[in-house]
């Protein structure tokens, strides 16, 4: 009987300790501080940083965006511990480019701070008396100098607090984000190839080709599909489509003296039909022995 009681007490102690650990993880309590009045960045979604990283990183998918559009990224500041704030706490924020540089080295990433026209954040936040959390926003604007080819992140630090102490482990955080233009997505691509290899020549269809955003009105095909004796394959060719104001399309990124429209059909109108979300494209490459391609690319779904 005595042994059973001891085992029950041990089990209760284990469960209590596990519960405390889970609470610490949820609140991001700094395990090294040894105090109850720690101010820190609380989680905003999943922490995507590697285990080796000193700083947490969060990611916001802005979805389909266009120039001038404004989005918001949630930012949580926490007074961590078992007690609520005994008074209003002013939390001052600042950019932390040193944290981003270290994060890029540690995690092998290439994040860069966006132009100042793209983002803004509050310089100070108030955690109200009797509470533990304050939520504010980083405002992201798809300005004219927003570069879809770059990986953006806003690195922030708690520069000072009116009371309490700043967390050693969660006093800085990386807020990364990205978006896509309205042409980005998965397309059904069908068309025809003329090639010096007869096995590659003829009609083809591929019902799932990814087109990735590379600019405000530009997308790049993952790879040009074709049939090799009836079997779906791809060329190492990745045409880039830029939709102009009149819905004509400029094709770039072609290898070996590429031309668009194709060398065999110079009057063809490369174009985009917004009503059906369809690209009609003609191009060629390899000037010496041209490979001539016609693509009809029909939007299917988001990528």
CATH topology of the largest domain: Immunoglobulin-like
Please state the overall shape, judged from the principal axes of the Cα atoms: elongated
By helix and strand content, what is the structural category?
mainly beta
Number of domains: 2
Low-pLDDT runs of 5+ residues are 1-27, 29-33
The helix-strand sequence is HEEEEHEEEEEEEEEEEEEEEE
Percentage of residues in helical conformation: 10-25%
Write the CATH homologous superfamily of the largest domain.
hypothetical protein (bacova_03559)
Overall average pLDDT: 90
The total count of strands amounts to 20
Classify the beta-strand content into a percent band: 35-45%
Sheet with the most strands, sense and barrel status: 8 strands, antiparallel
DSSP summary: helix tally: 2
The largest sheet has its strands arranged as: 17-16-13-12-11-20-19-18
- Architecture of the largest domain, CATH level 2? Sandwich
Q: Over the alpha carbons, how many angstroms does the gyration radius reach?
A: 27 Å
CATH class membership of the largest domain: Mainly Beta
Distance between the termini: 62 Å
Report on this structure:
This protein has 303 residues and is mainly beta. The protein has two domains: 30-180, Immunoglobulin-like, CATH 2.60.40; 185-301, Lipocalin. The chain contains two helices and 20 strands. It has helices at 2-27, 97-107; strands at 38-42, 57-64, 70-80, 89-95, 119-120, 124-127, 133-141, 152-161, 165-166, 172-180, 185-194, 202-215, 218-221, 224-228, 231-235, 240-243, 249-252, 271-273, 278-285, 291-301. The strands form four sheets. Strands 17-16-13-12-11-20-19-18 form an eight-stranded antiparallel sheet, with no helix packed on it. It has a five-stranded mixed sheet with strand order 5-7-3-1-9, with no helix packed on it. A five-stranded mixed sheet has the order 2-10-8-4-6, with helices on one face. The chain is elongated. The model is unreliable at 1-27 and 29-33 (pLDDT under 50). It comes from Niastella koreensis.
């Amino acid at each position: 009987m005595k042994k059973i009681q001891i085992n029950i007490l041990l089990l209760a102690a284990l469960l209590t300790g596990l519960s405390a650990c889970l609470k610490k993880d949820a609140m991001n309590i700094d395990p090294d501080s040894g105090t109850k009045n720690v101010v820190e960045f609380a989680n905003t979604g999943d922490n995507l940083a590697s285990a080796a990283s000193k700083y947490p990183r969060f990611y916001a998918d802005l979805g389909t965006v266009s120039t001038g559009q404004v989005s918001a990224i949630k930012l949580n500041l926490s007074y961590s511990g078992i007690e609520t704030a005994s008074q209003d706490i002013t939390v001052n924020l600042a950019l932390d480019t040193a944290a981003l540089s270290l994060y890029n080295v540690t995690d092998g990433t290439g994040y860069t701070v966006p132009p100042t026209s793209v983002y803004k954040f509050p310089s100070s936040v108030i955690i109200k008396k009797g509470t533990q959390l304050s939520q504010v926003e980083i405002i992201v604007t798809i300005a004219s100098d927003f570069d879809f080819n770059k990986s953006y992140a806003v690195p922030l630090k708690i520069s000072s607090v009116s009371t309490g102490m700043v967390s050693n482990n969660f006093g800085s955080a990386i807020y990364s984000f990205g978006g896509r233009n309205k042409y980005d997505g998965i397309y059904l691509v069908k068309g025809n190839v003329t090639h010096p290899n007869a096995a590659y020549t003829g009609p083809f269809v591929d019902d799932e080709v990814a087109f990735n955003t590379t600019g405000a009105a530009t997308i790049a095909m993952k790879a040009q599909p074709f049939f090799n004796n009836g079997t779906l394959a791809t060329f190492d060719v990745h045409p880039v489509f830029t939709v102009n104001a009149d819905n004509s399309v400029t094709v770039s990124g072609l290898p070996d003296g590429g031309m668009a429209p194709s060398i065999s059909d110079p009057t063809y109108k490369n174009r985009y039909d917004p009503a059906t979300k369809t690209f009609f494209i003609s191009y060629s490459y390899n000037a010496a022995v041209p490979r001539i391609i016609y693509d009809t690319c029909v939007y299917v779904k988001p990528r």
